[in-house]
Specification:
single chain, 139 residues, alpha+beta, 4-stranded mixed sheet, 6 strands, 29% strand, globular
Length: 139
C-alpha cells in the first residue's frame, strides 16, 4: 500500500488545533516542494489594495497566493504550510475575520500547518498582513 502524497497530523500529545483550523504536522511523502514568497495586499501594479481595510487586504493576499501557487503548477489545496505576519496595529478583535476568507481558499478538511506572528511593521506602510506559504505539488 503506497503512502498518500501528503499527510496532515495533529498528535494528541500537542495542544488541539481546535477552532484555529490548522495541522501541527504536514508530512510530504512525494511530490515537488514549492516555496512561495510572502504575499502582500498589493495588486500586480504594486498598488495597495484595501488601505486600512483588514478584510480587503486578507482577500488580496490570498488571491495573490493563489496566483503564485498556480504559476508553479499547483492549487491552493497543495499548500502545506502558511506563515502569517500581522502588524501590531491591527485590532485583535478583527483578526477572526481572516478565517472565513482563508477557508474559501484552503482545504479546510486538511488545513496546512501554520504559524501566526505579530510584528511591529511590514516592509511598506499600509500593509497590515503578509502571508508566505509552502506547497507540495503531486508528481
Amino acid at each position: 500500500m503506497s503512502k498518500p502524497p501528503k499527510e496532515f497530523l495533529s498528535p494528541k500529545a500537542l495542544i488541539a488545533p481546535g477552532p484555529a483550523g490548522y495541522s501541527h504536522v504536514a508530512k510530504i511523502n512525494h511530490g515537488t516542494i514549492v516555496y512561495l514568497s510572502g504575499q502582500v495586499p498589493s495588486d500586480a501594479s504594486g498598488k495597495l489594495v484595501g488601505e486600512g481595510d483588514f478584510e480587503a487586504q486578507v482577500e488580496q493576499v490570498f488571491a495573490n497566493l493563489k496566483i503564485a501557487v498556480e504559476a508553479a503548477g499547483g492549487t491552493m489545496a497543495d499548500i502545506v504550510k502558511l506563515n502569517y505576519y500581522l502588524v501590531a496595529e491591527v485590532d485583535q478583535a478583527i483578526v477572526p475575520k481572516l478565517r472565513p476568507i482563508r477557508d474559501r481558499y484552503i482545504n479546510v478538511e486538511k488545513p496546512p500547518a501554520s504559524t501566526f506572528v505579530v510584528v511591529s511593521r511590514l516592509m511598506r506602510p499600509g500593509w497590515l498582513i503578509e502571508i508566505e506559504a509552502v506547497a507540495a505539488i503531486d508528481d
